[in-house]
Specification:
By secondary structure, the protein is α/β, with parallel strands linked by helices. The protein contains 15 helices and 14 strands. The strands form four sheets. It has a four-stranded parallel sheet, sandwiched between helices. It binds 1,3-dihydroxyacetonephosphate and iron/sulfur cluster.
Length: about 325
């Protein structure tokens, strides 16, 4: 294996110039040598999903990270997901192939502003979506994901007031489902909040048999026209079990890879965003991950996720509460 011609760039990521490497075989070899596990989110490129040891949504990935016996976790997803793995498994080395893989939703909730928000609403139980930084989790009473948000909200006694952050669309959706009033942080994901209602309705007109399905991070008008709303895993399960043959999918189109695997006879149409130039709505952060970066990351064991222990300990408590309830 020729790994000459490598160089380390400013952010610590090692880029490969040698293109003729058989990355997949090398990744498998390194995985065994180093007792590493590759965890990937359904939004990453299909070719990466295919070589991962486990592909899942935020909840199942955090459960895997908590229980794995591996020495190294390579988290092919975005930063908050790898951070959650590190919070749960502090003695393992947690790697993220590209440190620039952030999340617009997590970024819409800076910890200092969230702290002030909490101070303005004393006596509230703070529920934070997993799409948050470790520092925001450290300010939180209980974490949730889109898979378990209803259950988490319903676990809070009815007489307790709730702060929900950072996703306003998910927060409002859960508030309607549970009939609980909540103080909701005004954050959003740039992918899910940008779907075009008009263009989806146009798709439906052209494909009248297609069922519209959406992730609850989408705004209310998109959820209202959707025949099914659910987390990433729930959407995948729905398309597998449904008798319908066509679906308009209003979430990150990476999930279609798994949907097609489970239902080769069905047809999936990615819902379009507002940008008329683009047919779909990809999360560019998730798509920063590549096989090459995964290889170099595993080979050189960097970039590594490091969290200050004081923050990690505080952030662990609300994640553990969520896992215990899930
Ligand atoms: P899930 O919790 O459904 O995996 O969603 C994660 C995410 O980033 C949604 O945009
Ligand atoms: Fe974050 Fe949105 Fe990308 Fe999910 S799709 S990781 S919420 S930016």
């Amino acid at each position: 294996m020729n790994i000459l011609n490598t160089e380390i760039s400013k952010n610590g990521f090692i880029s490969l110039k040698e293109k003729d490497l058989n990355f997949k075989n090398e990744i498998n070899k390194l995985k065994k040598e180093k007792n590493a596990v590759i965890l990937a989110h359904y939004y990453v490129k299909g070719e990466i999903q295919d070589i991962a040891d486990f592909v899942g949504d935020s909840l199942s990935l955090s459960q895997k990270a908590a229980e794995t016996k591996a020495d190294i976790i390579v988290f092919v997803g975005v930063h908050f997901m790898a951070e959650t793995a590190k919070i749960l498994s502090p003695y393992k080395k947690v790697l993220l192939p590209d440190l620039n893989a952030g999340c617009s939703l997590a970024d819409s909730c800076p910890d200092n502003d969230f702290r002030e928000f909490i101070l303005k609403h004393p006596d509230h139980t703070v529920i934070s979506y997993v799409n948050t930084s470790a520092k925001v989790k450290a300010l939180t009473d209980i974490v949730c994901t889109s898979s378990n948000a209803v259950k988490i909200v319903e676990s809070i006694p009815k007489d307790k007031k709730i702060i929900f952050g950072p996703d306003r669309n998910l927060g409002n959706y859960i508030s309607r489902l549970t009939d609980r009033e909540m103080v909701i942080w005004d954050g959003a994901c740039h992918v899910h909040s940008e779907f075009s209602l008009e263009r989806i309705l146009e798709q439906k007109k052209n494909n009248p048999d297609a069922i519209i399905i959406a992730h609850p991070e989408c705004p209310k008008p998109i959820l209202t026209i959707s025949e099914f709303v659910g987390s990433t895993s729930a959407l995948i399960k729905f398309t597998k079990e449904s008798n319908a043959k066509q679906f308009i999918v209003a979430t990150e189109p990476g999930v279609i890879h798994e949907m097609k695997k489970l239902s080769a006879d069905k047809f999936f149409i990615p819902a379009p965003g507002e940008d008329a130039e683009c047919a779909c709505s990809e999360c560019e952060f998730m798509k920063l991950n590549s096989i090459e970066k995964l290889y170099t990351c595993l080979k050189y064991e960097q970039p590594e996720i490091i969290i200050e222990e004081k923050i990690r300990k505080k952030a662990y408590i609300p994640i553990k509460r969520m896992l215990d309830l899930s």
